[in-house]
Amino acid sequence: MKFIDQTVIRVIAGNGGNGCVNFRREKYIPKGGPDGGDGGNGGNVWIESNNNLNTLIDFRFKKIFQAQSGTNGLKRNCSGKKGSDITIYVPVGTKIINYQTREIIDDLIQDKQKILIAKGGWHGLGNTRFKSSTNRTPRKRTLGLTGEKRDIQLELLLIADVGTLGMPNAGKSTLVKNISGAKTKISHYPFTTLHPVLGSVEIQKKRFVIADIPGIIQGASKGKGLGINFLKHLERCKILLHIVDLSPSNYSNPIENIKYVLDELKQYSTKLYNKPRFLILNKIDLMTTSKINKLTKEIKKHLNIKEPYYLISSLKKTGTKKLCSDILNYLNK
């Protein structure tokens, strides 16, 4: 299934039905009073979050959602039928934004959270409503009001406790797959992960959700690569895992790679840059102990690391149990 996390749609509520002008005319009642009924209210448009959805692909082709209009009033004081409401279902984590003003209307972060996005028009009044002691034959009625129309932007931000961060082929997908069982794609070429993937990690009879996003390269903030397009999915995370390949196959420097990712993160969002991070030094199975110790000392010296760091092998699962346990302890705090 194609992953789509942003779209613009138009919502149109139903119009209210018009009031009716009519007078009672029956056998033996030649001069009956007014009996024109009211119109029906227009239908509303609602948006509701649903846990069973994880993409906005349903809105790829259908862009206009319109509720039913109310029908006009009838004689014999019969009111028109109310227009049917419609409900638009979106994934949990969808942010609803006014497309014109950029105002955030709501943020649906819970299952079955429902909001009224476009209100239907109020019904018109029939001439019965205007009968009085001084006006026995009113010919006045009112028209139904027009329903609301809005262009709204739907923006999906995945809800995860933990987010992964790093260069392509740093081992993010392997780690997520091995600790959570998520169906992530793994290969030796860059940008194997083309869209965010969620996994659920269970440890000590408790769970946390981890998000795997595409890798970030130097110049991502200027449009290079894929990762910058999906960094927004880390905004809801409580902690980030900065995963670094200690033995990159392209002979690049792990220290420089760390700097590249942090620099791109800072340019994208200061708030995201300041989120708590764990530094994960990955692929230790490809290196000797002496080389690992030497490289770790260099990283600590050049980067002045203050956050916790871990030496792991996501492929061999070395150190991953301790990492997951510490993540859970941090989240519980």
CATH class of the largest domain: Alpha Beta
- Cα end-to-end separation: 36 Å
User: How large is the radius of gyration?
Assistant: 30 Å
Q: What is the H level of CATH, i.e. the homologous superfamily of the largest domain? A: P-loop containing nucleotide triphosphate hydrolases
Number of helices: 6
Biggest sheet layout = 6 strands, mixed
CATH architecture of the largest domain: 3-Layer(aba) Sandwich
Helix and strand content put the structural class at alpha/beta
> Helix coverage percent of residues?
10-25%
Supply the number of structural domains: 2
Principal-axes shape call: rod-shaped
The number of E-state strands comes to 14
CATH topology of the largest domain: Rossmann fold
The residue ranges in which pLDDT falls below 50 over 5 or more consecutive positions are: none
Query: Mean pLDDT, as a whole number?
Result: 85
